[in-house]
Structure formats: structure tokens, C-alpha cells
Amino acid sequence: MSLLLLAVGLTLLSSTQARHWGPQDPNFNETLVGGNWFSAAMASNQPQLMKAAGARRILIHHIQVTPRALRFHLHQRINGVCVPTVMTANKTKKKFQYLLEYIGQNRVFLEKVDPKSYAIICTHHKARGREMVVVTLLSRTPEVSRDTLRMFLSYCRKHGLHEPSVIDLTRTDRCLHARQ
Questions:
Q1: Burial environment of residue 69 by CB neighbours within 10 A (0 to 12, 13 to 18, 19 or more)
Q2: Please, what is the Cα angle at 25 between 19 and 26, to 5 degrees?
Q3: What is the pLDDT of residues 144-160, one digit of tens each?
Q4: Residue 177: exposure state from Cβ atoms within 10 A (0-12, 13-18, ≥19)
Q5: Are 142 and 114 in contact (CB under 8 A)?
Q6: Closest CA to 85 of 52, 62, 53, 103
Q7: Mean pLDDT over the full length of the chain
Q8: What's residue 33's pLDDT?
Q9: Which domains does the chain carry?
Q10: Beta bridge partners of 114
Q11: Which of 20, 129, 145, 156 suits a disulfide with 43, CB 3.0-4.6 Å?
Q12: Residue 68 φ/ψ region, left for φ over 0, alpha for ψ in the -120 to 50 degree band, beta for the rest
């Protein structure tokens, strides 16, 4: 019996269900994530859905912060065309957690943030008994520093996502030509 409990415990520790802490400063002002961003990297426990034309390949270029929500201005490649979209993630009672309706219900967590440099957003989507996790690294500049990328990879590993599931978006078409 104790072997079974140990196995369950180890599975939970290594799963993508890791606890979300949000920014280290509990008094972090969420309005600081507002403004222009560049999608720099993504990782997922279902990397096949992150392909260039995948529904989950979302390229955030601006975050608008309101008292009750985060509004993401983004692009998606649909049939080879960069299509602008706006998605709204509404605040929940939990700090740094939001709900977003897109292909079902998504829990969006504002994770690590350096408002002048980078932000990490983690999204959990449940559908048909399966959970998809997508972690996105945003950068204030089109390029991202090696230190920031290493920190992102470390964050992903801690959440059960390893390098084969990470996409470096700085080497792909991020619809930069479509930004206003």
C-alpha cells in the first residue's frame, strides 16, 4: 500500500499540475504587464498542437490590463495569414489567475514577471478528460536574452515540460509584419 502511495505522490510531483505561485512579490502590480510584447517561446505537454498552423500557436503582441481582466491582442496564422484576435481573460478570486473562453475553458496563470524584460504565462485547458498545458514566454524586445531563455527552460522543466516540447518562436514567423 505504501508503495502505491509513493508512486502516486511521485506522479503528482512530476506532473504539469505543479502549483502556480505567480510573481514572487505578492504585492506585484498586475498593471505592469500591460503594453507591447513579443512571443519568444512556447512549451506544451501536447507539442503537436503547437505547430505553426495549430490552434494553440497564439502570438501575443499586446496586453491590456483592466480592473477585471487581461485583454490579449494577438495574431494566429490561419491558412497562412496572420489574423488579429482579441481574447479576454477574466480575473478569478485567486491572485494572478484568470479564466479565458477559447476552445473551451482555460485557466490562465500570470507566473514569473520582470515587467521591463519578460513575462511567463501558463495556461491549462481541459477537454474530453485531458489537460493541455501551454507555457508562453513573452519578451519586451523581439530577441530574448540567453539568461531569460534558460530561466524559461528551467520553469518548464519544473512543470514537467522538457526541451523537446519547447518552441523557440524567435526563429519562426511571428506575424511581426502584421503588428500595428
A1: middle
A2: 70
A3: 999 999 999 999 998 88
A4: exposed
A5: no
A6: 62
A7: 80
A8: 93
A9: 19-178 (2.40.128.20)
A10: 118
A11: 156
A12: alpha
> Phi/psi zone of residue 175: left (φ > 0), alpha (ψ -120 to 50 degrees), beta?
left
Q: In what order do the strands lie in the sheet with 130-139?
A: 35-36, 59-66, 69-78, 81-91, 97-101, 105-114, 118-127, 130-139, 38-44, 166-168
Q: Please give the model's pTM, rounded to 2 decimal places.
A: 0.82
